Amino acid sequence: MDYIVETKGLTKQYGDKEVVKDVDLKVPRAHVYGFMGPNGAGKSTTLKMILGLIRKSAGQVTIDGISVNRKNRIEVLRETGSLIESPSYYGHLTGKENLEIVRTLKNVPEQEIDQVLKLVRMESQQNKRVREYSLGMKQRLGLAEALLGRPELLILDEPTNGLDPAGIQEMRELIRELPKRMGMTVLVSSHLLSEIDQMVDYVGIIDHGHLIFQDKLEVLHEHSRGSLRLCVMNQTAALEILKREGISCNIEEGTLKLPRLADDVTARLIGKLWEGGAGVYRAEEKQKSLEEIFLSLTGRRGSL
Fold it and tell me: 175 with 32: CB under 8 angstroms?
């Protein structure tokens, strides 16, 4: 696997408190990597250490095969765009004028301004002063600034903050498309698990400063260990048959909740329930939501 970002033993300590502890991130090239965890788990601190915005207490950061240090940081990060916390802007200038300043600093062609404006869908707002922008429009402007220069790596910290539902969906779609359209790697953080679920290929979960999970999104879903739900006409008969078969069962909201079973076992069991007078009229497999998976991994709720 080709990783564009790797960290080894990345640690940040403030006084006696370790807010990030021995984090080993591996971000595959040309994919969307979701970095998630509750607020205060250490997401922003980790991203800031990767970008050199705060000094790490211990560990190593490697970007595109080069170990980042104080001397080479600017050069290594030249191909990196980022949007961390609130975007920076000059409120008395228009969106386009702000982009012109960033374009000049990055020394990229003028035509890229129109390209990024179109990408973040703010062409109609480009000549309005930024102090008149909504929070969502400021987020779009910050993303447009990060995209100038077509960086190989884009690091986004909670990029949908302040966006309305339609804007959130557009941002998801844009992030999802960037690896294919521009060959870009996107490292995106969020505390909204349902959001991450819709736009990433790989996932890292951090909690209390510790990286507790890192793999493909599909592997995370395998942790769901779905259950089988049965709706029956005669629960008493069904429970007796399940007991004889040695299958554990709980009753939830009027349905029988069974552990996940192999297809052939499920088919045979439904046949026995029907023959025994239980009267099965619905059978469905229910997967844990991503929030439930997170809760099982961390013992904490995954939204806020």
Answer: yes
**Which residues does 13 contact at the CB level (< 8 Å), separation at least 6?**
19, 57, 58
Residue pair 230/255 in contact (Cβ under 8 Å)? The answer is yes
Structure tokens, 83: 């949007």
Torsion angles phi and psi, residue 165, rounded to 5: -55, -40
Alpha helices in 120-229 (DSSP H): 135-147, 165-182, 193-197, 217-222
**How many whole angstroms separate alpha carbon 203 and alpha carbon 190?**
11
Q: What CA–CA distance (Å, rounded) separates 214 from 223?
A: 12
Residue 259, H or E segment: strand 255-259
- The answer to whether residues 95 and 50 touch, using CB atoms and an 8 Å cutoff, is no
> Quick one: which of 27, 95, 36 has its CA closest to 63?
27
Q: Can you tell me the distance from the alpha carbon of 98 to that of 116, in angstroms, rounded to the nearest whole number?
A: 13
Token pair in block for residue 278:
């239980």
Q: At what angle do helices 263-275 and 235-245 cross, to 10 degrees?
A: 130
Q: Is the pLDDT of residue 175 over 60?
A: yes
Question: Is the pLDDT reported for residue 297 higher than 80?
Answer: no
Reported as a single tens digit per residue, the pLDDT across 118-168 is: 988 899 999 999 999 988 889 889 999 999 999 999 999 988 877 788 888
pTM over 0.90: no
Amino acid letter at 110? Answer: E
DSSP string, 41-109: SSHHHHHHHHHTSS--SEEEEEETTEE--TTTHHHHGGGEEEE-SSPP--TTSBHHHHHHHHHHHHT--
- Predicted confidence at residue 302, as pLDDT, reads 44
Q: Exposure of 180 by Cβ count < 10 A (0-12 exposed, 13-18 middle, 19+ buried)? A: exposed
Provide the residue count of the chain.
Answer: 304
